[in-house]
Each structure stands twice: as C-alpha cells, then as structure tokens.
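User: Teach me something about this protein's shape.
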Amino acid sequence: MAAKRIEAPAYIAMRAITYSVVAVIGYLIIDVAWKGAGAITWSFLTEVPRNSGSEGGIFPAIIGTFYLIAGTVVAALPLGMGAAIYLSEYAVQGRFTRAMRLAIVTLAGVPSIVFGLFGLGLFCLFLGMGQSILAGCLTLACMVLPTIIVASEEALRAVPASLREGSLALGAGKWQTIWRNVLPYAVPGMMTGSILSIGRAAGETAPILLTAAAFYLPTLPQSAYDQVMALPYHLYILATQMPDAQKVRPMQYGTALVLLMLVLGVNLAAIALRSHFRKKYRW
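Assistant: First, the predicted structure itself:
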C-alpha cells in the first residue's frame, strides 16, 4: 500500500509533465502553421527575394539550406559512424578511450556559437575558404559529429555480444563479423540518431551566420566557395533587421513554417529508415 501511495503521485506528475510538453509544442506548431499558411504560395516558394529580402520569395534560401544539409551529411556521417565503430569494436577499453568518450560527450553540449567561431577561425580564415558553403558544411559537420558518434556507439553496444562471438567462433574475421553480424542490426539506431542530429543542424543560425550565410543573394551559388542564403538566417533577418515589421510579418511566419516542415521531413525520414531496417533485421 505504501508503495502504491508513492507511485500514484509520481505517475500523475510525470503524466502531467508529458502532456504539458506536448501541449506547448503543439501550440507552437499550430500557431506557426496558422499564421504562416497564408504566405505559402507558389511564387513565395519559387521566386527570388526582392527589395533586400523584404519582398518576393525564398527560393535561394530553400536551395541553400538543402546545400548545407547535404554537405553536412556527406562530411559528418562517414566520420561519425567510422569513429563510433572504432571506439566500440576496435579500441582498447582503457583510460585513453574513456577520456575520448568524455571529450566527445562534452563537445556534444558545446553551444553552437562556439562552433561558429571555431569554423570562422579554422575554415574561413586559417584554411582560406572564406565565408562559403564548404566552410558552413564543415562547421555544421563538426557541430553534429559528437552527437552522431554517441548515438552510433550506443546503437552498436545494443547489439548482443553473442552475435559477435558466434561469428568469430565460426572463423569469420573482425571486419567480416562487424559488417555481417553487427552493422545490420545497429544501423536503425545509428541512422536515427544521426539524421535527428542533421535535423538540428538544419535549423541552426549561429554557425552559418559566421561561416556561410549571406543577408541577400538573389541568385543561386555557383560553387562550393560561394556564400549562400539559408532559411534560419533569412528568418533571423526578417525578424530583427527589417524596419517595417508588420509588412514582413507574413513572410516571417511563412519562412518559419517552411523551415519547420523541412526539419519535420528530416525527422520523418529518420523514423521511416528506422522502421525499414527494424523490419528487415531482427534478433
């Protein structure tokens, strides 16, 4: 009876907290969708901005955001997953490995503006890339890399050791065991965590503010060394730098809705991939 008296209030409190969080997020999504739906037109999505971005469409910002996401995926996923495989399957578990894991976890909590300053100093100035798509992608890749490593390593650890031991007992090599018996079952968790971190990168403003984003570009970039417009930075400019706030208010909400749908699409892709691989590989 005493246990039930303690358990009931805790259950009610956690349930109330969960519903409150869902309600707040739901309100934010509904508010943005309600106020931004009116601005979503074909011309808004396909035209270039005019009058310093206060009129016209957001097509260059949409394309620029896709460029940044694609570059981040290409740079971060192989490195992050490779590092996770090494730490989980090959590295000798000792003080040095524990220190590496602590450093990775610490980096995962570093504010994004710090990564922006790091990217500005390393990629833009020291390596001479300037403010460009390449510098922005590498900066975002550095930002999401710790999260990808942590998520991928946890997914690898979740695979039962018996699958490794059985493969090695039958004469398979280390890499063959990892490729055939570990990765197929770890991929759902690895992909889910990785894509969710990429979704976070899609909505970041501080790193690209210092390394890649331009205030107003009516044309698309021609190379990886050009600056680019991006939805998060464009939304920041519309919200803080426009003198006539009421005039651009529909564009603010419309841009926010497009960015929200983009991040939601990335998250749905993660869920779909996870479901696909979980159905394909079971243990």
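Now, about its shape. The two ends are 39 Å apart (CA to CA). The first helix runs from residue 2 to 36. If you'd like, I can walk through any region in more detail.
User: That's plenty for now, thanks!
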